[in-house]
Amino acid sequence: MHFTARAHTNIALLKYWGKADTAIITPTTTSISLTLDEFYTDTTVWFDESLTADKFILDNEIITGHALQKVSRFLNIVRQQAGIASYASVISTNHVPTAAGLASSASAFAALAGAASKAAGLDLTLTELSRLARQGSGSATRSIFGGFAQWTPGNDLTSVGSPLLADADWPIQLMTVVINDQQKEVGSRAGMQHAMTTSPFYDLWVKTANEQVNQMITAIHEHDLMTIGQIAEANALQMHATNMTAVPPFNYLTDKSWEVILMAQELRQKGIPVYATMDAGPNVKLISNPADTEVIKEALLAIVSDNQVINAHPGPGIQINAG
Ligand code: 2P0
């Protein structure tokens, strides 16, 4: 049977930056994210006894090499859980605005987990799906759920995602400022490992992140945009500080990233609540109230052009259908 899953990407407000266990992918800290409506992956999977190897087509291109191996390794986990041996065809489409550079392993592995598990005859709960997606990519653990979600440390069974506020239907938005859409030099998998093992600030990162978890959860439940933004911006800068203090140091942020981060600070001084968060790349995501879109955009247009700004809102959890 063919199954198709749609999973949306998510942006972490408290970041996942370091693995407690690299083999099964468990994190050193709790991360909290917002799933977005604008960016998602559709993936169709079917297992076929006549195949002699797994096949992977992404955005109409046949994929080989490392990316195919990553998908095959993930399918091995699904095959083992389902007790089947046949290879699979995987067809994926990333729905990301052209050249946004936001193709994400979160939506990719969440959608693959959903479609492959169903196609293999498994009927997993959302928690079980989250655990499976985690073994493909850590951030995918959270993309099973809509709205705000968290992913906690733990063991193979307990380190899973859960919804915090699935229907985030109050005014919050995330504007992505695309600064560079090129492949990054240091991938997040290698980057987080290097920061964790060499930065003298890493232990402080874990300690501070632990303190931020309950503050963030309370702020989300209280719909408190300013506190959410303040904690998210601090957490992002702390994550980037572990990279800049790694040995040798590395850095994802460019001069343009800093221009946008400082612009957000200036707007705050004028009373507009807008906060920056940055992942393993130079793009900046601005957390704000939709009512302030125009004034933020006007300030942004002094730094970047209109087509470099993509606005997104809270999105839904995974959807899986036959066919
Ligand atoms: C996050 N990032 O929480 C953090 C913030 C990037 C910066 O999760 O090694 O691709 O596959 O588990 O999920 C990116 O890391 O890493 C990421 P793996 P992943 O969203």
SSE layout:
Elements: E1 3-14, E2 19-21, E3 26-27, E4 31-48, E5 55-58, E6 61-62, H1 65-82, E7 87-95, H2 105-119, H3 126-134, E8 148-151, E9 161-165, E10 173-177, H4 188-198, H5 202-221, H6 225-244, H7 255-269, E11 274-278, E12 284-288, H8 293-300, E13 309-312, E14 319-322
Parallel strand pairs: 5-7
Antiparallel strand pairs: 1-4, 1-14, 2-3, 4-7, 4-8, 5-6, 8-9, 10-12, 10-13, 11-12
Helix pairs in contact: 1-2, 2-3, 5-6
The protein binds ligand 2P0.
InterPro entries: GHMP_kinase_C_sf, Mev_decarb, Mev_diP_decarb, MVD-like_N, Mvd1_C, Ribosomal_Su5_D2-typ_SF, Ribsml_uS5_D2-typ_fold_subgr
Family: Belongs to the diphosphomevalonate decarboxylase family.
GO molecular function, one term: diphosphomevalonate decarboxylase activity
